[in-house]
Amino acid sequence: MTSSHPSPTTPPNGDAPRRPSDGATYAAAGVDIEAGDRAVELMKQWVKKADRPEVVGGLGGFAGLFDVSAFKNYERPLLASATDGVGTKVAIAAAMDKHDTIGHDLVGMVVDDIVVCGAEPLFMTDYICVGKVVPERVASIVKGIAEGCALAGCALVGGETAEHPGLLGPDEYDVAGAGTGVVEADALLGSERVRAGDVVIAMAASGLHSNGYSLVRHVLLNQAGWKLDRKVEEFGRTLGEELLEPTRIYSLDCLALTRATEVHAFSHVTGGGLAANLARVIPDGLHARLDRGTWTPLPVFRTVAEVGKVATLELEKTLNMGVGMVAVVPPHSVDVVLSILEDRGVEAWLLGDVVERTDEHAEGAALYNAYEGFTAG
Q1: Cβ count within 10 A of residue 247
Q2: Residues in domain PurM-like C-terminal (predicted)?
Q3: Of 18, 20, 87, 330, which residue is least crowded by CB atoms under 10 Å?
């Protein structure tokens, strides 16, 4: 979790390095090395909370190390890797000067892409790009990442903080992360396992999660002119607090299901919405029939639709509409899945089923087919 900085430069003629007064300096260009070093010191306490026994060494090295000797117990271990960011949700965090949850969002976006294939997330690295290093702010971002990793059961083994003055404003920043997991080859989940007769189970989202914020900001902040400190009765809190609700992390919940019963596929509902993401795990020749009447989306989705006069189809292909993760399971697993999720505090319900395609539409029209699968409640 270090910032990269160049070493002092020695002129070609072998003279002593120039003094700051002799010419331009990195600090004069806007990069504060000392602030970066202080940020690293502040974040150390949080990184310790995102540990696993397999982590080797600590902060300060050029690479994070993770002991994979346990892989020898696998017949054929497959590594699963994912990378993501949190989009323009960072603009809300910056405007509210609240930075300790955006890292939680980042972890959720990465690890829940990994777990959909049945893989256990092992470790993450992060990249934080800022206009100006404010040590306390950087440490707050890392705090959220570390807490998210702890919730996901993975380690935070390293990262990078880069200061880009002139490219970003002093209070602007962006975050990205990458994660790695492992799954036994014969336990790999996906469309190859899905069969007609399977049941689709929805897991509730905590809110908008981390997708569609360009639309949400355009509608509520730009068009309607709402302020982030506006108290919204339907939300029971301010607009800003609603928009910063952390992304739910499902990885340990999904792994609990795979260890207790048979699961054929998961679908992480992110950009593209429920239909497009579910279509990614429905094989050709099959069709997922989903019932809109089985749940009521949270008020924030209705607010965006009404204030922006956003068409239903546009809303559903942009936002998660209250469903953050989907499990596709055989009928005999349904009761076990619902019971486990209830015990773990995850609201879940029967969303639909998988059937043979009988219409004349071309195979492979997955996005259209998935929307066609919605039926009125």
Answers
A1: 27
A2: 195-360
A3: 20
The whole-angstrom separation of Cα 113 and Cα 168 is: 29
Task: Write out pLDDT tens, residues 141-174.
Answer: 999 999 999 999 999 998 888 989 889 999 999 9
∠ CA 160-164-165, nearest 5°, is 150
C-alpha distances out from residue 154 to 55, 103, 110, 268, 323, Å: 10, 14, 11, 18, 24
What the block records as the tokens of 219 is 């509608």
Listing DSSP states for 152-218 in one string gives HT-EEEEEEEEE-BTTB-TT-EEEEEEEEEEEEGGG--SGGG--TT-EEEEEE-SSSTTS-HHHHII
The tokens describing 28, both together, are: 């004069």
Residue 80 bridge partners (DSSP): 181
Cα dihedral 357, 186, 81, 265 sign: positive
Classify residue 175 as exposed, middle or buried by CB count within 10 Å of its CB (0-12, 13-18, 19+): buried
pLDDT 10s digits, 290-316: 998 999 999 999 999 999 999 999 999
Q: Is the dihedral of CA 204, 303, 216, 244 positive or negative?
A: negative
Say which residue the tokens 């470790």 belong to.
Answer: 123
Phi, psi torsion values for 248, nearest 5 degrees: -70, 135
| pTM attached to this predicted model | 0.85
At 53-65, the pLDDT tens digits run: 777 876 666 788 8
Is the CA virtual torsion 323, 327, 328, 329 positive or negative? negative
Amino acid symbol at 118: G
- Alpha helices, DSSP H, located in the chain: 33-47, 89-96, 102-114, 135-152, 213-216, 239-243, 251-260, 273-279, 299-308, 312-316, 334-343, 366-372
Cα–Cα dist 294/52, whole Å: 39
DSSP 280: T
Which structure tokens are listed for 174? 């962006």
